[in-house]
Amino acid sequence: MAENLDNQNNNEQPKESDSNYWQSFKELYKDISFTEAKKLEFQKGVEDEFDVDKLPAVSRRKFLALVSASAALAAAGCSDYNGNGKIIPYNTKPEEITLGKPNYYASTYVDNGLDYGILIKTREGRPIKVDGNPDHPVSKGKTSAKAQSAILGLYDPERLQQPLRKTTSGNFMKSTWQHVDQEISKSLSNIGGKEISIISSKIISPTTLKVIQDFQQKYSGAKLYSYQIFNEEIKNSAWKKCYGSGLFPSIKWNEAKIILALESDFLGTDGNKVESSRMFAEGRNTSDLDNFNRLYSIEGNLSLTGLNADYRMRLRPDLQFEFVMSLVHEISKQGISVGVDPSILNQYNLYDFAQKNSLYGNVLQLLVGDLIKNKGAAIIYAGRSLPENVQVAVNLLNEALGNTKLYTQDTIELPNSSLSSTSDWENLVQSMNNGEIGAIINFDTNPVYHLPSDLGFVEAVKKVPLIVSLTESENESSELAHYVLPISHPFESWGDAQTRLGYYSMQQPVISPLFYTRQKEEVLLAWISGNYKENIYHDYLMNYWQSTIYPTLNEMLDFNRFWLGALQRGVVNTGNIPKSVGNFNKEVLVILNQNQSNISGYAVFLKEGYATGDGKYANNGWLQELPHPVTKVTWDNYASISVATAKQMNVEEKDIIEITLDDRKLKIPVVIQPGSADNTITIELGYGRSKCGVVGQGVGFNANVLMSKSSAFGPWIYTSASIRKTGDTYDIVSTMEHHPIDDPLVSGVVKERKIILEGTVSDYKKNPKFIQEQRSMDTATLYNRLDFPGVKWGMSIDLNKCTGCGECVISCNAENNIPVVGKDQVKVSREMQWMRIDRYYSGSAEDPKVSLEPMLCQQCDHAPCENVCPVAATNHSNDGLNQMVYNRCVGTRYCSNNCPYKVRRFNFFNFKDHFRDGYQESNLFDLVYNPEVTVRSRGVMEKCTFCIQRIMEAREDAIRDHKPLKGSDVVTACQEACGTSAINFGDMNDDKSEFYKFRNHELGYYVLENLNVRPNVTYLAKLRNTHSEEA
Amino acid sequence: MKKSLLDYILRVRLPITLFIIIASFTVTYFATRAERDNVGYSPVQPINFSHKLHAGEMKIDCQYCHTGVELSRHAMVPPPHTCMNCHSIAKKDSPEIKKLTAYYMEQKPIPWVRVHKVPDFVYFNHSVHVNMGIKCESCHGDVAQMDRIVQVHSFAMSACLNCHRNAKEKLPYLKNIKNGPENCYACHR
User: Fold this and answer.
1) Does residue A587 form part of some domain?
2) DSSP label at A613?
3) CA B126 to CA B119: how far, in whole Å?
């Protein structure tokens, strides 16, 4: 060790003395224009477009407005003065429906090869909200933002509404199912020994696989190809090499005391985020400090996981192998037998590596100590994007340290469902070129957009005589198809799924198909049997279950009762116990004896789009407008680079650069991301769709073009990229500096004004009152102290658990009818989301620490907004809520100006009409609205109501049951969606409730407490689990 | 002293004009109040259903048809299916029942004309009121005596608040009733 100490000394993580918090570079460097702008509630020029003189004389909008106004006037003149309209009851009311009360149905949402148990809330037969299914063993009542947003996709007016057929002139013509069924079945039967290629994403439904087998029986030339642009293949193949069989197991994150994440965003996009963030947060419980976990993250770009790390270091992704090997060496030097040939290990030295790549030697020393001290209770987790040799080395480390205790070997893959290999695809392309493929069926996939361009798929597919695309809406692949067949949304479909031992997840429709669509299995079944009938797949599914799965379950109930129960719960538990992890095969370690390929130039890291996934969600306005958890950018992807790299490239934010990898090129704007590794470019995929609905069309840049079928580091990491500055610029829109609550002219304002209070676990252990001691004393007030007898609503947000993922924002959008405003409006700070996650950096621009703070209306007792409203449109209720009455509001915006937390949102437009030229005016979108919440119009201020509709519903139920209303009866939308249970809600006057403990917690503080507005949202200060001797 | 024209205008014409304006406003205000509040509104319905017959003479409970009233914010107008519980047998030959049967058989809903209405931005809740023991007639009048439904009370916000503020006085049959909430969020959200 001694020889390393010198190295460490000039390479130490700076001590934490810098209490300067900042949100953007402009703020960090105290840019004058920014500080000026920040003082204004609304940006300069925000009202320009309302200048009547500047509008064109008769715009389309104006013309329509005039026409409709005159029509309305005429109608009003003629109508019955007292007319109240009609009441149209059902003819025969479905038994399960009580008008005005929701019904919930359990189902399953499949995304990226994973199943999420969901509970769909329907009102009068239409789905309006998605939450997690509490009975689902993995989801446990929580779900992902994408599953929640799927509800918007259901009502997307741009979904295909009937089958399309390409005419000889190359245009699509509307057709009928009968017609296309006939033509396609005929072509398939006359395929003449040629192959029928079905291109699918990973199939996790046993019944769907059976349908494909049946199809292969009927059409003997049929072959299944599957891909998943983001997948766990590398992890799984490394696992197979190490342990002989099985897939990479699931991890008991909640039992891990030390977590080392290597280029892994396990809290964001890597693996089953719902499960891992829930379990991760279970290990960050302030009432159980001894089991508080410590997260180390070593990554190239600041990810959601990096935001939450206790220690974070920057490392370009192609150097991870060298790092892991150095770590293996260091650990073996500490007396842990790893079984690797010393001659291999001696090539690596952790502290030399740290020195060379500016990692912190002192942190690494702590890391090694922690890993050894917590043998069997630590986990080293390599991101799914890292190459196989890294995965093997990480498996080895976990094995050597006894961390295999934290594995649960319950992950399974259905037989014959594995993804196709690169050589399979190459063979397919070759066969297509040779004319050996008779038909291509895109089974709800978009290979033209997804597959690497150097595969030559696009050119080859044009030679195939019959291409059929099964898709929900038109995409890049359906453009080349001869038939485009509309398939049903998951909420209109039946299904099942199995990804783990121990349970099946069931999927049932909650609404009849809105259009002339069939679910994708039905389409194949119709071609197999030759005639389509309604419920063909439902019957098939039931038969398959009755004949194949039900007998294996040893159920006491007869099948029909079992089946209804299974659908009601959404899961079928099979009781299989996880398999034991096998023996580590030491022979695999030869893979570690390889010299890393050349590492030069810039590293390019391609990541799953946080909002858009693989591009599937590009047409979803809620997801597109969800601020990225790290950069807060909406409606775009970008190349994320470090400060030093930007200097070296001589580029500034928003400059467009051209990235070249061999002969593949991409032009993309730059975002300078604090905490990025130098010489690393990180780009999210899933953008730049060229054929998509009007929401996602042309949003962002298609970085799939950088992917290659062969890369030394796997499909997502590339080295030796070169960069050229193009000189063009592009507007990237970020909500980062919108609605700021601090004043950058005052140094250290975030800390001074108590916007953020935080500490370390050891601070808290030493002095449990350390947060309370920093809080302001109760100061004098001019207001009368109000009394709130009875129920008084309050919220607490545990910043130890909040990961900043943004699920709550999407849930709030869905619950409270919040409109999508579009990029042009976000640019001028007009986003309408009632919740935002404020993200503050502290420390240096190269290696910042991050603090997160969800911000929503604080429902202050002495609300500053209330006394400036000239019309009393905002005032106080006797249960402690700051009420906002839309019908009184005249739109002065004084309240917003006076709100210290900047949580009020003004409808500058009727956004429903304004976004994408009235796209949301479609009648279909009316179906997504929550009928319990007003849809606001232009000129009205709005803000978080603490989900008043849910409070009123709980009150209604309490009165019905003649019971007093309790705080725990109400669950707000954000609380329900919060995957880590960071948000708590309840009655602060009820001293027996769980919430009372949070409200009066030792770590509790109010934001901007010295304003003495007496907020009703308590924040529990974040504790970083750093080493006390270090701080 | 000679009276000037201005004097005349100020002393005579102005007071008279003002008086006429105020008087006509006041008279109109009070005379049309019921009309503006929809009191007395009694439209012709697609089927000549009589509450007097069903609720009055036959004493069928309100909730036999208005099933949502204890469960939800909507009282619910019954679907023809409910009517057919009896009318598939009872009085099949009456012309009104024939109309009803036709709607039912053709699977069409009956387009009842709405009588009582609060604006869209009001989230009035039937179940809360009914479960507190408030009788239907306190708002809807004595329906059991109406051949054709007519609005009896105003449904304006002032009428709601009048009762919420003076519950004991307005609902003397409820001994333990407390005043209703007066905060905005009670009805508007």
Assistant:
1) no
2) B
3) 15
Tokens, residue B161: 């608040």
Q: How many CB atoms lie within 10 A of CB A2?
A: 5
Interface contact flag, A87 B68, Cβ < 8 Å: no
User: What local confidence, expressed as pLDDT, does residue A735 receive?
Assistant: 86
Give A877→chain B minimum CA distance, Å: 5
Q: Are residues A462 and A565 in the same domain?
A: yes
- Partner-chain contact A960 B113, CB within 8 Å: no
What is the distance in angstroms between the CA of the first residue and the CA of the last residue of chain B?
A: 66
Rounded distance between C-alpha atoms, residue A738 and residue A916, angstroms: 22
Q: pLDDT at position B120, please?
A: 87
For residues A630 and A690, membership in a common domain is answered with yes
ipTM: 0.88
Please give the single-letter amino acid code of residue A240: K
Q: Tally Cβ neighbours within 10 Å of residue A266.
A: 27
pTM: 0.90
Q: State residue A776's pLDDT score.
A: 73
Give the orientation angle of helix A388-400 with respect to helix A233-243, to 10 degrees.
Answer: 50
Q: What is the DSSP letter of A317?
A: G
A545 in Cβ contact with A564 (< 8 Å): no
Contacting residues for A221 by C-beta, under 8 A, at least 6 apart: A191, A193, A194, A195, A196, A438
Domain assignment present for residue B15? The answer is yes
Question: Based on the structure, what is the number of domains in chain A?
Answer: 4
Residue of A nearest to B82 (CA): A92
Residue of B nearest to A90 (CA): B79
What are B142-184's pLDDT values in tens digits? 999 999 999 999 999 999 999 999 999 999 999 888 899 999 9
Per-residue burial over A913-941, b = 16 or more CB atoms within 10 Å of its CB, e = otherwise:
bbbeeebbbeebbebbbbbbbbbbeeebb
How far, in Å, CA of A278 to CA of A134, rounded?
13
Per-residue DSSP letters for A946-992?
Answer: S-HHHHHHHHHHHHHTT----GGG---HHHHH-TT--EEEEETT-TT
Closest-CA distance, B31 to chain A, in angstroms, reads 16
Range of the domain at B18: 5-31
Q: What is the pLDDT of residues A320-362, one digit of tens each?
A: 988 999 999 999 988 888 888 888 888 888 898 898 888 898 8
pLDDT tens, residue by residue, A232-257? 999 999 999 898 888 899 999 999 99
Decide which of A408, A427, A442 is a domain's last residue.
A408
**Do both A886 and A1010 map to the same domain?**
yes
